[in-house]
């Protein structure tokens, strides 16, 4: 039995391939390096959706349709925002998404793409005692997300966020994508499938790690000694957030893609000194992990530089997993459609190891 389903192949997919030995990520025939900084998020959504929706328009039209979906979602969720605001920001976003129609069409898919981008800034603003800002259907997706958060978005920050959304759009059969496919295999609608993915993404062993990365950096800065702080964590059986991966045995290629984006922002505000400090912590962590776990190659994963990038563009750490969901939702939808098309219910077996009832003669 594979506890954790290690090495089990549970789906054929045309969507993405994670090469954990070579350290490569392929998304529908394109390497990650080809896409990040060159393709906009809406183009990558189109790439992932191609063949899964009959009425999929071209790139420009799709960007417009996503903008219109942001406006539609905002109108739908506006009456309930005040009730969602007291929840933690991730639960508030997820609860807001439960009211979306549960169909399988492109309209349903676009509302799901729009929803995290609309709900996250609106709930953050309400939490700060500010009025939510309505979406602008004509703006680009990442730029509008920042505008809804802060009132304006500089082109460089919008580009950085767009690169982040592209970087995390899909990643093989990770826990949240698998959860999405299991629900889609029952022929439930897209909203039901995406809600399953959202649940799985929340945990710190998956998409919940980048917020704690910031807490770690702050604690190390306060302590003044990265190696001593990290060694103490390991001695207490804690995991170092932003390091390690089930599939990658080498450095996660997304870490370098995001680090390059943060470097481009480094002349801005405190991002440069934060990056230099994070690089020092990264080196210390790799060394501490090398000594503590010599049997395992534990390398930097996507979450370490996610934390720096999302901090630099202006999101608070409690909303980092929301922004991850805003990017990954495109991959989840495409996987859900791919799974539905197989017509095959995912239904593995368990091995019973509990007590056996007395047999009545
Ligand atoms: N810090 C300390 N020890 C670690 C870490 C880490 N970050 N990662 C793995 N290990 C250790 C484990 O404790 C275990 O040690 P042991 O054999 O002495 O018990 C050994 O390495 C193997 O651990 P597994 O859990 O089997 O490794 P797996 O590859 O399944 O874990 C995971 C992957 C869950 C991501 C793990 O590396 C981890 O917990 N990392 C920290 C959290 C994190 O960064 N999550 C984001 C992942 S990326 C993403 O999902 C988008």
UniProtKB/TrEMBL annotation:
CDD domains per UniProt: BsCS-I_like (cd06109)
Uppermost EC category: transferase
Family annotation (InterPro entries): Citrate_synth-like_lrg_a-sub (IPR016142), Citrate_synth-like_sm_a-sub (IPR016143), Citrate_synthase (IPR002020), Citrate_synthase_AS (IPR019810), Citrate_synthase_sf (IPR036969)
Pathway: Carbohydrate metabolism; tricarboxylic acid cycle; isocitrate from oxaloacetate: step 1/2
EC number annotated for this UniProt entry: 2.3.3.16
Cellular component terms per the entry's GO annotation: cytosol
Family (UniProt): Belongs to the citrate synthase family.
NCBIfam families linked to this entry: PRK12350.1
UniProt name for this protein: citrate synthase (unknown stereospecificity)
Lineage: Bacteria, Pseudomonadati, Pseudomonadota, Alphaproteobacteria, Hyphomicrobiales
């Amino acid at each position: 039995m594979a506890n954790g389903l290690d090495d089990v192949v549970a789906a054929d997919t045309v969507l993405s391939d994670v090469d954990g030995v070579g350290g490569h990520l392929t998304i529908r025939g394109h390497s990650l390096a080809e896409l990040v900084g060159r393709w906009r998020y809406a183009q990558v959504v189109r790439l992932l959706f191609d063949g899964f929706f009959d009425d999929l328009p071209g790139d420009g039209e799709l960007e417009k349709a996503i903008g219109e979906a942001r406006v539609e979602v905002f109108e739908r969720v506006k009456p309930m925002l005040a009730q969602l605001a007291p929840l933690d920001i991730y639960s508030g976003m997820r609860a807001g998404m439960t009211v979306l129609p549960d169909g399988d069409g492109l309209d349903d898919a676009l509302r799901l793409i729009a929803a995290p981008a609309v709900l996250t800034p609106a709930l953050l603003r309400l939490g700060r005692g500010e009025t939510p800002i309505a979406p602008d259907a004509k703006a680009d997706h990442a730029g509008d997300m920042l505008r809804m958060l802060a009132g304006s978005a500089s082109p460089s920050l919008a580009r950085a966020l767009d690169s982040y959304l592209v970087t995390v759009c899909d990643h093989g059969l990770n826990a949240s994508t698998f959860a999405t496919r299991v629900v889609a295999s029952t022929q439930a609608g897209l909203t039901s499938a995406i809600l399953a993915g959202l649940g799985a993404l929340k945990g710190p062993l998956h998409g919940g790690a980048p917020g704690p990365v910031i807490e770690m950096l702050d604690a190390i800065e306060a302590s003044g000694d990265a190696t001593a702080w990290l060694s103490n964590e390991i001695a207490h059986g804690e995991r170092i957030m932003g390091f390690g991966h089930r599939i990658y045995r080498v450095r996660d290629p997304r870490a370098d893609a995001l680090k390059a984006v943060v470097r481009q922002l480094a002349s801005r505000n405190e991002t440069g000194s934060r990056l230099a400090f994070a690089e020092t912590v990264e080196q210390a962590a790799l060394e501490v992990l090398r000594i503590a776990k010599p049997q395992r190659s534990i390398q930097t994963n996507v979450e370490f530089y996610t934390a720096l990038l999302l901090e630099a563009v202006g999101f608070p750490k409690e909303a980092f997993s929301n922004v991850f969901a805003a990017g990954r939702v495109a991959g989840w939808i495409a996987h859900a459609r791919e799974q539905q098309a197989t017509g095959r219910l995912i239904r593995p077996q368990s091995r019973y190891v509990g007590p056996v009832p007395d047999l009545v003669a």
